[in-house]
């Protein structure tokens, strides 16, 4: 199945949000993260973007890739956006450390190649 433009753009947004989270937290410890409201705010915003982009992925594409936990990605976005008082920063850190690097590799593997410059 060929990926449609909307799904490709959403996957790109997901990958970019993950890259930013990993960049923001690079060379930081949990303690650094917990002591930096700036880092926490930046990370939360990128998780919102990640979840919103995942929500835009077509149901057909999601069903073709059940190895990605679409519902939890979207659900985390909803918690951050609507129930922000319930956000557990230590849980976010665990997600960053344990899950995001692998998710990024997987999403990058699903991205279609960029069009040739001549075809733009």
UniProtKB/TrEMBL annotation:
It comes from the Bacteria. Pfam families: HepT-like (PF01934). Keywords: Hydrolase, Nuclease, Nucleotide-binding, Phosphoprotein, Toxin-antitoxin system. PANTHER family: RNASE MJ1380-RELATED, UPF0331 PROTEIN MJ0127. This is DUF86 domain-containing protein. It comes from Trichocoleus desertorum GB2-A4.
């Amino acid at each position: 199945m060929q990926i449609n433009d909307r799904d490709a753009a959403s996957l790109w947004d997901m990958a970019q949000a993950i890259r930013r989270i990993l960049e923001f937290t690079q060379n930081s410890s949990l303690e650094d993260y917990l002591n930096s409201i700036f880092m926490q705010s930046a990370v939360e915003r990128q998780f919102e973007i990640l979840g919103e982009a995942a929500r835009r992925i077509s149901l057909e594409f999601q069903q073709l890739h059940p190895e990605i936990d679409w519902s939890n990605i979207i659900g985390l976005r909803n918690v951050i956006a609507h129930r922000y008082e319930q956000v557990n920063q230590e849980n976010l850190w665990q997600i960053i450390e344990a899950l995001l690097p692998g998710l990024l590799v997987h999403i990058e593997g699903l991205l279609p190649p960029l069009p040739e410059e001549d075809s733009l």
